[in-house]
Design brief:
Distance between the termini: 61 Å
Number of helices: 12
Number of strands: 7
Largest sheet: 3 strands, antiparallel
Helix content: 25-40%
Radius of gyration: 23 Å
Strand order of the largest sheet: 2-1-5
Length: 383
């Protein structure tokens, strides 16, 4: 039967959204309640012999319990929303952040920049199983895309950074990534007269510090959205934007329960979920997920749900980068997360739908970085 998606919204402030996702399938047993970032989802895998009358009572009781306060109306809508255009608030700050994003002098080697692992010519990732850090260090985890990352509830797979600003400081000082220190990075920037001028234009007096460096990088990253995908155009009413197979793929994606985790404008990024619900996920990757942050054993293998925007560009997939094709990724997610085995034609249609999520890629002029001065600390690529 069909997935029913009811979304209750507080229209006054837009702060309370409670989503009830009801998923009927041949699988027995009730699902589970998932709470994340102001959204509550309740998955029901099978009603069995329960009558629709009792189901309506159940649903009403859930709504009454969850929404004791007034909710003016109920509106049915798609679980995925279009990505909106982004207009920078401070263009000077964004331009400064763009230069810093591309500047390899923020690394010990003078060779690695933010763009090295989050390449904007490659979907905001590096298309490697794990990234390559200083001295060819093998990274511990697959590099997530930077595109639309401002929509995530937190940054990194384990959510250890609350926002893009906090995330931007991590790789600079990580010995396995850029292998610098925040102090040395600031020394480099302070030694370059043009950077001194640019920071003053963006922040006023106060000079250069790591807080301002990461704020500028985050301001640039916030502009890296990918609106106007074919699926977005379909959401806005253009029925010709999708082919028949792509639309069938979306229906399978939606009705199978994929939207319980992959929803919202980013089609993901809004919750943490366990990798391997119906079957354990087999991997040699040592990443523990949220447990590494919270210290709670129940959070082991709980990872931030990745965005599916531009997913055809961001292979390989999963936190360990072990899967290189969308077809295999769809098959594994169906079995591990939903307890479903998609037939070949269903898999092909879901993949066709996923490719419609590729949006307009960020376009801008690559910055010409200011030259180092005689006092700029020299890079040390082989130490």
């Amino acid at each position: 039967m069909d997935l029913r998606n009811l979304i209750l919204s507080n229209t006054e402030q837009g702060t309370l959204r409670i989503r009830i996702l009801v998923f009927f399938s041949d699988m027995g047993g009730l699902g589970k309640r998932l709470d994340w970032n102001g959204i509550t989802s309740i998955l029901i895998h099978s009603l069995g012999e329960v009558s629709m009358f009792l189901f309506r009572i159940f649903l009403w009781s859930v709504l009454s319990f969850s929404l004791v306060s007034q909710v003016p109306w109920i509106q049915a809508q798609e679980p995925i929303q279009p990505i909106e255009e982004m207009t920078p608030k401070n263009r000077n700050l964004v331009e400064l952040g763009k230069m810093l994003y591309f500047d390899p002098r923020l690394s010990k080697s003078g060779f690695i920049s933010c763009n090295s692992c989050h390449n904007l010519s490659m979907g905001g990732s590096d298309n490697l199983q794990t990234s390559i850090g200083h001295n060819w260090t093998k990274g511990p985890i697959n590099a997530p895309t930077v595109l639309n990352s401002s929509m995530n509830l937190a940054q990194f797979w384990d959510g250890r950074a609350k926002d893009l600003k906090e995330q931007a400081g991590g790789p600079i000082a990580n010995p396995g990534e850029m292998a610098f220190t925040h102090e040395l990075a600031v020394d480099v920037l302070e030694s370059i007269p043009q950077y001194q001028t640019l920071f003053q234009q963006s922040f006023g007096e106060g000079g250069i510090n790591i807080d301002r460096v990461t704020e500028a990088i985050a301001a640039f990253e916030e502009t890296l959205v990918t609106p106007d995908s074919r699926f977005d155009r379909w959401l806005r009413g253009d029925e010709s934007a999708l082919t028949a197979d792509e639309l069938k793929g979306y229906q399978i994606f939606k009705h199978s329960g994929c939207v319980a985790c992959h929803n919202g404008p980013a089609v993901g990024g809004a919750s943490y979920q366990k990798m391997g619900v119906f079957e354990p996920y087999q991997t040699d990757n040592p990443a523990e997920g949220r447990a590494a942050v919270t210290g709670i054993d129940a959070d082991r293998f709980m990872f931030k749900v990745p965005t599916l925007r531009n997913v055809e560009l961001t292979y390989p997939y999963f936190h360990d980068g072990a899967v290189w094709t969308l077809e295999e990724a769809v098959d594994l997610m169906g079995r591990l997360q939903l307890g479903r085995s998609f037939k070949p034609h269903q898999n092909a249609r879901i993949v066709a739908f996923l490719k419609t999520l590729t949006g307009r890629q960020p376009t801008f002029q690559i910055p010409v970085l200011p030259p180092s001065s005689n006092s700029t600390p020299r890079p040390k690529p082989f130490q």
